[in-house]
Amino acid sequence: MNFQLSEDQVAxxxxxxxxxxxxxxxxxVREREDASSVVDKAGWQALADAGVFCLFVPESLGGLGxxxxxxxxxxxxxxxxxxxxxxxxxxxxAGTIAGxxxxxxxVGIAATSDRGAVPGVLELPSDCDGYLVLPSARDGAAPxxxxxxxxxxxxLATRSLDPLHPVGRLNGPLVSGTLELSGTADALRxxxxxxxxxxxxxxxxxALELSVxxxxxxxxxxxxxxxxxxxxxxxxxxxxxxEMARAQLHYAAVVTDAxxxxxxxxxxxxxSSTQLEWRxxxxxxxxxxxxxxxxxxxxxxxxxxxxxxxxxxxxLALKRxxxxxxxxxxxxxxADIVASxxx
Length: 343
Prior knowledge:
11 helices; Butyryl-CoA Dehydrogenase, subunit A, domain 3; alpha+beta; 3-stranded antiparallel β-sheet
């Protein structure tokens, strides 16, 4: 299977990267730190105008009609730029929830864990107009629903782990919305996991680039620290971990887009196409989380004493990586899925 990007995907990546560099520079993103509303409306509209949120909407409905494989390419770019906001929920809601494709309705995700744990916090409560409510994976074919923010009681937390991803505490149980989305929550959850994993890959790449640049510029004993074997090994390990995660991500996206490939691969392992998809997606989320957390921790180490300061942006990637590593499912839960589907 060839995981090299197609010409169209390269054009998508480069075009989106140009927009992101113009609208979401690091300085511009950092201006939103610790604000209750972290979404820059002008930048968000630029993403909408570029078709980011209608990526999966069929062309017949005014969207781009692209695949989840194209989607992970786009979201990786956004992760690399630390773009704040409910990107993934809005992308998945487009075509069903009015205004999502146009970027005027911002949609978050509120998911019950696959073990039935009800969420106690709500992401981006000051920015989201509504939420995709995903029931537990135990509910099988239960639908995902849309719930307006006005129907949810939540109190904004004084300070969130990630200053660019505020959360609110739910004041009561989360109920299902009245508007059902097409398809099952199970399939929507897998797509959400893949896109979240893609964001993690972007964060890992961002952290690794910071580390490499600093290792070239920082001198100790008359030599750049990047020439020291210990630093070389750290960065080489992170690059290998990143590329392994990216390959698994693209494989999972391919089998999600192509059920026939999932069915063929599933026969090899004695799995149904859905089970094969779950194994691939869980493996991708697990590896991408690990890559992001490891790369950001290594970036702190390579930067030395400066890595712990607020001025160096490493902590922003580290905190976002930690947030995304617990969204929708934990690493332990993803590992359990992979183990249960491996014979």
